[in-house]
Design brief:
mainly alpha
């Protein structure tokens, strides 16, 4: 996808505006995640961050709709040579929107004052901090279309997802404690990482293999 984006950005095609909206979605997704996870794990008052969080999520949704409209117009105006990149952007824009949705799920746990196991708190804070860093990094990797940076990003996401899955399995075996809320936050963070990774797969994978990096590592390409 790097060649497509580079070529399209060099022409007055309107794609630059679309990319600005998309990068704003990535920035807002990280903001919603930080606000939600800090309310659940960092002691921030959910009532204080609620209005800002919901306003930011509404902006994410508005930008998704704005991008969809512009991509449809762009594809119609510029023809089949630019249609593949429009399809790819449609896919990754939905992933960006889902990051905000899962972050809101985390906020819901904070708002109902869900009980997080004390034994998991330190680990979750560490995962939260790493995930926030990755969400910030995703914007730069996507903007620069850095293939090596994308592979490193994907590897780090995979490792953290594996950690979350391991913790989830362990929590399912706990007896005598209510571990539901703790399991949910591991699950939500794992899904946020998955959607972020899906976005970055577009840097190193062709259109037909978006979201399937794990299944086709041997076929990855710089297309």
């Amino acid at each position: 996808m790097f060649e497509w984006l580079s070529a399209l950005r060099s022409k007055p095609s309107g794609l630059e505006e679309i990319m600005r909206f998309f990068e704003q979605m990535l920035e807002d997704g990280r903001h919603v995640f930080d606000a939600a996870s800090n309310a659940l794990l960092g002691g921030a008052d959910p009532n204080v961050v609620k209005d800002d969080l919901w306003a930011t999520d509404k902006r994410i949704n508005a930008n998704e709709r704005r991008i969809r409209r512009r991509l449809i117009t762009h594809a119609a105006a510029h023809g089949r040579t630019e249609f593949p990149v429009c399809l790819a952007l449609m896919s990754v824009v939905k992933d960006a929107e889902r990051i905000g949705d899962y972050a809101k799920n985390i906020f819901d746990l904070a708002f109902i004052e869900a009980n997080i196991l004390e034994s998991s708190h330190e680990d979750l804070v560490s995962i939260k901090d790493t995930t926030s860093r990755l969400l910030a990094k995703s914007r730069n990797v996507y903007d620069t279309q850095d293939a090596e940076g994308a592979r490193a990003f994907i590897g780090e996401c995979e490792s953290l997802q594996g950690h979350c899955e391991e913790k989830l399995r362990a929590l399912c075996l706990i007896e005598g404690e209510n571990a539901a809320a703790t399991a949910l936050i591991y699950r939500y963070i794992k899904r946020i990482l998955a959607h972020s990774m899906n976005i970055i797969t577009s840097v190193v994978m062709p259109l037909d293999l978006l979201d399937y990096y794990d299944e086709d590592k041997g076929r990855e390409t710089n297309v």
